[in-house]
Amino acid sequence: MTAGVPTTADDAVTTDGAVDTPVLSVTSLVKTFGRFTAVDDVSFELMPGASLGIVGESGSGKTTTARILAGLEQPTSGTVTLDGEVVEGHSRRARLRHARRIQMIFQDPYGSFDPRQTIAQSIAEPLRLHAPGSRKEHRARVGELLDQVGLSGRAGESLPRDLSGGQRQRAAIARALGIAPRVLVLDEAVAALDVSIQAQILTLLDELRRETGISYVFVSHDLAVVRYITDTAIVMRHGRVVERGETERILRSPQHPYTRLLLDSIPSPGWDLDRVAQDRRALDLR
Amino acid sequence: MTLTIPALRARSAKRRRRRPFTVSLAVAFLILVAVTGLLAPVLAPHPPDATSLLNSLLPPGTEGHWLGTDSTGRDVLSRIMYGARLSLLAPLGVVLLSGVLGIAVGLLAARAGGWADAVISRGMDIVFAFPSLLLAMLVVAVSGPGLTAPICALAVSYTPFVGRVVRSVAIQEGARPYMESYRVMGFGELWVTLRHLLPNVMPVLIAQSTLAFGYALVDLASLSYLGLGVRPPDADWGSMISQARSAILQGEPWSGLLPGLVVLLTVVSVNVLGEHLGGSIGRKQSEGA
Fold first, then answer.
1. DSSP SS3 for A91
2. Which residues form the ABC transmembrane type-1 domain (chain B) (predicted)?
3. Of A160, A194, B43, B103, which residue is most buried, by most CB within 10 angstroms?
4. For residues A106 and A102, what is the distance between their CA atoms, to the nearest angstrom?
5. Is 3.40.50.300 the CATH number for A8-253?
6. Inter-chain contact B199–A130, Cβ cutoff 8 Å?
C-alpha cells in the first residue's frame, strides 16, 4: 500500500473483526497502448468481504484496470496479487486458478450470454469446468444459484433474449457465483439498467456480500451507486489515482478538485452548469 | 432500452417470418427429386439401361414411355429417376467436403487474426478467382474420368465460397462480449470456438452450403456433359444431355431438353431455398444485435 488509505481497520470489521491479509492487492499497475497510458501507477488493496469502488469518467482507466484484474489484459508493469499469490503466466492451469479466484460482471448482461443457450445451461457450463460432479449435482447447484439471485426455475429455462435486463444481470451474477470466486469485479454492472432495477441488483449484491464474504471491485461513474455499494473508493483520472479513502468521506468532503468536480456534475438544486464547465477547464490547465 | 426493443422486434419479425410460397414449392420439388432418386428401382417404369432400337426417339406422351425415349430407345423418365442419384449425391459430397474445409479454414483465420488471417484470406481469394470448372477439368485430365477426382477438385474450389462467409461471421460473432465472459471464466480458446462460436456460425454456413450445392450440381452436370464425369452406362443428368446431342441435331430434342429442365428446376429450387435461409438468418442476427 503506497498512498496511505485507511483500509485495514474498517474493512476487516466486515469479516469477523479479525485483521486479515488482503485478498487482492494491486501494486504500481501500468498499462500502455502504444504511446497512450491508460493506467498509470495504480495501487490498491482489497480485504476479504470488502467492497472497493473505482470511480472516474470514461477514459479514466477504470475499465482497463478492471480488465487487467479479470485477466483480459496484461499489465505493462506492476503486479496483481490474489490470495497472497502474484498473478502470472498464461498456462491453462494458471488461467483456471485465476478464474476460480476472480470473476467479472459486464455492463451488457445480454451480450455476456451465448444467445443459443438457456440461462441454466450457461450457469452449468462453468460449474462443469470448475467443480466436477454429476449432472444431477450440477442441476441442483444451478437451482440453488438461481434461487440465491432471486430467479425462478422458469427463468432458468429461458433464453437470454426472453429475460429482462435485470433478470439477465441476476443470471450473470449467478453464473459468476457458481465458480465461487473470492473477488467479483463489476464493470458498470448496473449502468445499463433502469433505476428501480438498479436498486434491486444493488440490494442483491449487498446481501450476497454479507452472506458469502465475497469481495467486490465496483467500477462505476455513478457516485450514488458507489456510495451505496462500497466501503472505500479510489477516484481515477487520466489513468492515475487522484483520491482514495472511505467512500462516505470522499463524497462528503472531497479533497481533490476532480472529485469535487465529479460531485458538482450531478444535477441537483442550484446546479450551475457554467460553473462546472469552468471548473473543468481550470482542472485541465493544472 | 434493452428491455423493450428486442421484444417489439421479435413480435414484428414473427409476423414477417411466414415462409413464402416459392420456398415451399422449391422444398417440395427437391423432396420429390430426392425421393424419386432414392426409390428409383421401385418407381421407374423401365430399367435405365434397357435399350430398344425399335423404340428409339419416341416423343413424350407415348404410352409406356411418358417422357419418350432417347436415341438408343432407353426410357427417359427412368433415366432421369436413376440419374437423380448421382446428380444429387455428387454435389452433396462436394458440399460436405467444402463445408468441413471451409469451417476449418474460416474459423482458423477468424480466431488467429493477424498475419495468419492475411495469408489464409489471400489464399482463399486466389482459389476463389480460379474457375471451379477449369480446376475440375485439370484434375480430371490428370486422373482420368470418374467422379471422385472432380468432387474433390470442386470441394477445394468451393472452400473459399464457404470459408469467407464463415470467417466474416466468426469475426463478427467473436467480438460479442460473451466471448470475453467465457475467457474470464477460464475456458480455453478451442472450447469457446467449437462450443460457442461454431454453433452460432452454423446457420450462415448451411445457407451458403445450399447455394454451393446448386453451383456444384451445374458444374458436375457440365463435366458429365463434356464426358469427364460420370461414365456410361451410369447416368446422370449431364451425361443424358450429352448423349442427346445427335438427337437434337436430328430435330428430336426431347431426350436432352427434359433432363436439362430437371437440372434447371433443381438448381432454381436450391437457390430459392438458399436465398431464403440466408435472408432469414440476416433478420435473426439484426434482431439479436
1. coil
2. 84-274
3. A160
4. 13
5. yes
6. no
Per-residue burial over B177-191, b if 16 or more Cβ lie within 10 Å, else e, is ebbbbbbbbbbeeee
The per-residue b/e assignment along A209-231, b for 16 or more CB within 10 angstroms, e otherwise, is beeeebbbbbbbbbbebbbbbbb
Reading the block at residue B63, the C-alpha cell is 404410352
Residues of B in contact with A96 (CB under 8 A): 186
pLDDT tens digits along B258-274:
999 999 999 999 999 98
Q: Where are the domains of chain A?
A: 8-253, 256-286
Residue B123 one-letter amino acid: G
φ, ψ of residue B51 in degrees (nearest 5)? -90, 155
Q: Where are the domains positioned within chain B?
A: 22-38+76-288
SS3 state at A29: strand
**Least Cα separation, residue B168 to chain A (angstroms):** 18
> Alpha helices of B130-226 — where are they, by DSSP H?
132-143, 148-174, 177-184, 189-191, 198-225
Which of residues A140 and B243 earns the better pLDDT score?
Answer: A140
Quote the CA–CA distance of B20 and A75 in Å, as a whole number.
54
* Gap between the Cα atoms of B105 and B201, Å rounded: 13
To test the contact with chain B by mutation, choose from A112, A169, A186, A195 the residue with the greatest count of B C-beta atoms within 10 A, namely A112
- Give yes or no for a contact between B34 and B15, defined as CB atoms under 8 angstroms apart: no
Q: Given CB atoms, is A246 within the 8 Å cutoff of chain B?
A: no
Q: Residues A183, A215: contact at Cβ < 8 Å? A: yes
Instruction: Determine the Cα–Cα distance for residues B50 and B156; give it in Å rounded to an integer.
Output: 37
Please give the residue of chain B at the shortest CA–CA distance from A104.
B184
User: Going by DSSP bridges, is the β-strand pair A24-33/A36-46 parallel, antiparallel, or unpaired?
Assistant: antiparallel
Task: Name which of B177, B181, B184 is nearest A71 (Cβ-Cβ).
Answer: B184
Nearest CA distance, A129 vs chain B (angstrom): 8
Contact A192 B184 (CB under 8 A): no
Residue-level pLDDT at B249:
85
Residue-by-residue DSSP string for B35-98: HHHHTHHHH-SS-TT---GGGTTPPTTBTTBTT-B-TT--BHHHHHHHHHHHHHHHHHHHHHHH
Q: With an 8 Å Cβ cutoff, are A179 and B185 in contact?
A: yes
Shortest CA distance to B226 belongs to which of B240, B237, B239, B211?
B239
- Average pLDDT of the segment spanning B105-115: 92
ipTM over 0.90: no
